[in-house]
């Protein structure tokens, strides 16, 4: 457990470092047109170094620095140094640092998420930790209650490009997008009136940390056709097969009643 706790410490430190440098960050662009900053690169290098030290035989699937994936390893870690880099680079609060933990069968079993500018505490933000075999903690406090959002909520989190695929006009509540798939996925867990989330096809580092955390509290992440999200192809840097829904079983059913998927 001490190995996982060391990674937890580094994720928290990375979030605070990113927060302190957000005002001075300079945007650049990858070949695909997505935004990149020096903060992304620095955080990924640091987290990769720590994970390699603590778990030398583990796989690491990260956004900026590809490495060889080896099947049969006890753990696979995913790293998103800044989920929501575009948001981060513009000075907005909807971003986070995230590490996901998958087991040998590539099932998400944990996650560590630092969103230092999100939430009601302006000095701390939101910090979620689920280490394998332990309780979920949010801002250092254990979470014991399971999800109860089986009735329609008032708000739905969506990816910034979802409107190109789906007609959201039948949804009776509010629709929000803050720039981070990971924060969208955990929003039903941390925000009281968020019903669920509709997530576009994403890479493993965009979803695994949040997926591991929410399913610990009776939420689920599934494809819009009802099939489960599998990571066997995603560890090879392929995107998810379809758009995804996040919520309780009941809330996902309610979302499907309103939005033609």
Structure characterization notes:
With about 260 residues, the chain is of the alpha+beta class. The chain has two domains: about 1-140, Fructose-1,6-Bisphosphatase, Chain A, domain 1; about 155-260, D-Maltodextrin-Binding Protein, domain 2. It has six helices and 14 strands. The protein has a seven-stranded mixed β-sheet. A five-stranded mixed β-sheet has the order 11-10-12-14-13, sandwiched between helices. A two-stranded antiparallel ribbon has the order 1-2. α1 (about 1-20) packs antiparallel against α2 and α4 (about 180-190) packs parallel to α5. The longest helix is centred in the first third of the chain and has 20 residues, at about 1-20. It is globular and about 50 Å long.
Give the structure's gist in a few sentences.
By secondary structure, the protein is an alpha+beta fold. It is built from six helices and 14 strands. The strands form three sheets. It has a seven-stranded mixed beta sheet with strand order 3-4-5-6-7-8-9. A five-stranded mixed beta sheet has the order 11-10-12-14-13, sandwiched between helices. The chain has a two-stranded antiparallel sheet with strand order 1-2.
């Amino acid at each position: 457990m001490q190995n996982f706790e060391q990674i937890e410490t580094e994720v928290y430190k990375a979030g605070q470092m990113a927060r302190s440098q957000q005002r001075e960050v300079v945007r650049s662009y990858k070949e695909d047109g997505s935004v990149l900053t020096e903060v992304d690169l620095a955080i990924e290098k640091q987290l990769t170094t720590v994970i390699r030290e603590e778990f030398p035989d583990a796989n690491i699937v990260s956004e900026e620095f590809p490495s060889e994936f080896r099947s049969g390893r006890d753990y696979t870690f995913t790293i998103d140094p800044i989920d929501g880099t575009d948001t981060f680079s513009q000075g907005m609060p909807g971003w986070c640092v995230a590490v996901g933990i998958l087991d040998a069968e590539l099932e998400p079993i944990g996650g560590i998420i630092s969103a230092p500018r999100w939430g009601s505490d302006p000095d701390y933000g939101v910090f979620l930790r689920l280490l394998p075999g332990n309780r979920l903690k949010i801002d250092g406090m254990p979470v014991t209650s399971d999800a109860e959002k089986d009735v329609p909520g008032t708000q739905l989190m969506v990816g910034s490009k979802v409107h190109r695929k789906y007609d959201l006009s039948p949804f009776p509540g509010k629709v929000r997008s803050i720039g981070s798939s990971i924060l969208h996925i955990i929003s039903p867990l941390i925000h009281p009136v968020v019903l669920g989330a509709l997530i576009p096809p994403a890479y493993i580092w965009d979803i695994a940390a949040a997926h591991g955390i929410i399913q610990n509290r009776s939420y689920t992440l599934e494809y819009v056709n009802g099939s489960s999200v599998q990571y066997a192809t995603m560890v090879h840097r392929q995107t998810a097969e379809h758009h995804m829904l996040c919520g309780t079983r009941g809330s996902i059913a309610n979302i499907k009643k309103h939005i033609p998927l």
